[in-house]
Specification:
Layout lengths: L9 E7 L8 E8 L2 E9 L3 H9 L3 E5 L6 H11 L11 H8 L2 H10 L12 H18 L11 E3 L2 H7 L13 H14 L3 E2 L4 H6 L1 H17 L11 H7 L14
Parallel strand pairs: 1-4, 3-6, 4-5
Antiparallel strand pairs: 1-2, 2-3
Helix pairs in contact: 1-5, 6-9
Protein name: DUF429 domain-containing protein
Organism: Planotetraspora silvatica
Length: 256
Amino acid sequence: MSARPYGEGVLTVGVDLAAEAVRTAVAWVEWSAGRAFVKDVAVGADDDLIIEAIKGAGKAGIDCPLGWPELFVSFVSAHRAGDVVVPGGLGRDWRRDLALRVTDRAVHERTGLRPLSVSADRIAHPAMRCAALLARLAVETGTAVARDGGGPVVEVYPAASLKEWGLPYRGYKRTENAEARGRMIDALLAAAPWLSLGDHESACRRSDDAADAVIAALTARAAACGLVTVPGPAQVANAVTEGWIAIPTTPLDALR
């Protein structure tokens, strides 16, 4: 696969990243004259396609953790050196501190949703691929990727974006939930009549990976316009290494 050239409009890209290409989707959305048009959607995206898509976009949203919790990294390093300091209580709170990033807590506080733990769940497998992609992107562009969302890449969470926009955000995953996914797409198009899925509407109805890639591209637009959450003073240092999930702070219509 190779990235495809587009017109002069502002382009955002969304990446629904999985550990393997077969479940990875990329969406390109072009913005012009108060409208947005899905130029392409690719399901089964390999590393080359992802890199070229990000390099060609004004902003790219990746649905995957961009880093690991600082406390978890320190814990693993100490364990490797045989120098783990055992806290007073080895209970749930201690393990949660190792499992959750600062941004995961912030998302839960704002939306009630709980992102998967990159240090204690299967999302770690896509995160490993993501780390390699970000390293390759830094080499090819000559600039390190800002994990706090301040650069060309931002971490996104489609379910949280959908919820903040007042759209259906649960139960649309997997092939057997095509009907629920169809209702979500219907609600999205009703809320954003300026958005055209074009020839790719059927792909979004058929594949939750494709649908999430489009939502990721829309969230990237929100981030590019400064319409998302950003780390507070006490969160900045962690966001730089752990990553920061950008959550929309305005209605969907503001993206125009």
